[in-house]
Design a protein that fits this description.
Elements: E1 17-21, H1 26-37, E2 41-46, H2 49-58, E3 63-66, H3 72-86, E4 91-94, H4 110-137, E5 141-146, H5 159-179, E6 184-191, H6 197-210, H7 214-226, H8 237-248, E7 259-262, H9 274-281, H10 294-306
Length: about 300
């Protein structure tokens, strides 16, 4: 699936030296491809070497480095590769993250909590602390950290995930104040419910395990998140990539310390949201979100993109 067909062209990215972590697939890969399409020099990092090799086969110009961001020694090695391959750094996009444990707080496994914080929070810290000296040497630059809508509002039964994403917002806002005098801008990107290959694989697997038609499972998934957005639609990886590219481009040169939501104006992370419950009670219910037929058109686009 091509997630770059709607990625724009942004002034000032050509020739920039860019590091994207967590870029082996999905959103991170699409962001890295967006930088490549804008003629930046890109090194992608991921914990999965197979994904990196596949990326390299698709895009011979990309540089790759396998890394576990929870290990400071491996992050040191990553930045050795950055210096060797790129000769410096202008932009870093920290996309590494995991979804973590789901369930009531009293049942959250301590090891799962610690693992999530090690990847989502400490991993971002390890990358940023090593990137800053290179950005200072370049005379400035841009740091983007992938948070989430869950870093802006409560997320019941996902306390570990929300806590890690809130932590990233605090990290970025503090760093924006600390580094602004060096010409370094720091922002978080806060995606809403992105639906791409990885999410679809999960929906398909759960549908088959439950003996439910895949099309029906996709439809239920779509309604479970679309009804919680003011703009009832799925968020695509290229939507996130376009925001990242804009902020890192010349057009975004005064944007720093911000938590930039690309989420269709998400109103709740409660699953299912109240509007979806209303639809279950009465499928013919008239909802404000359907005014003008937007929901129906969004559903049609979703089915066309992910239908078999």
């Amino acid at each position: 699936m091509d997630d770059t067909r709607h990625i724009g062209t942004y002034k000032g990215l050509a020739g920039k030296r860019v590091l994207v972590t967590g870029a082996g697939r999905g959103m991170g890969k699409t962001i890295a491809l967006g930088f490549l399409r804008n003629d930046a020099r890109v090194l992608v990092a991921d914990s999965d070497d197979g994904r990196l090799q596949a990326f390299k086969a698709e895009e011979p110009l990309v540089q790759t480095c396998q890394v576990d961001v929870t290990d400071p020694a491996q992050v040191d090695r990553l930045f050795g590769a950055v210096r060797d391959s790129l000769g410096g750094l202008d932009i870093v996009m920290n996309n590494t993250g995991v979804s973590g444990p789901v369930g009531p707080v009293e049942g959250v496994d301590i090891d799962a909590w610690n693992r999530m914080m090690a990847i989502n929070v400490s991993g971002a810290f390890h990358v940023v602390r090593r990137a800053v000296p290179l950005l200072k040497a370049a005379g400035g630059g841009s740091i983007m950290i992938n948070s989430s809508t869950a870093g802006l509002m409560g997320y019941p039964y996902r306390v570990a995930y929300a806590a890690s994403k809130f932590a990233l917002v605090g990290m970025a806002r503090s760093l924006a104040m600390e580094l602004g005098g060096h010409g370094i801008r720091v922002n978080t990107i806060c995606p809403g419910p992105v639906y791409a290959d990885r999410q679809d694989e999960g929906v398909v697997a759960r549908a088959r395990a439950a003996g439910v038609p895949v099309a029906q499972a996709r439809e239920r998934y779509f309604e479970s998140f679309a009804m919680s957005l003011s703009l009832p639609d799925s968020i695509e990886p290229e939507d996130i990539a376009n925001m990242v590219l804009f902020v890192c481009s010349d057009a975004g040169r005064k944007i720093t310390g911000q938590s930039l939501a690309v989420d269709g104006d998400t109103q709740t992370l409660i699953e299912p949201p109240p509007a979806a419950l209303l639809l279950q009670a009465d499928p013919r219910a008239a909802l404000p979100q359907t005014t003008g037929g937007y929901l129906e058109r969004a559903r049609a686009r979703f089915v066309a993109r992910f239908g078999d």
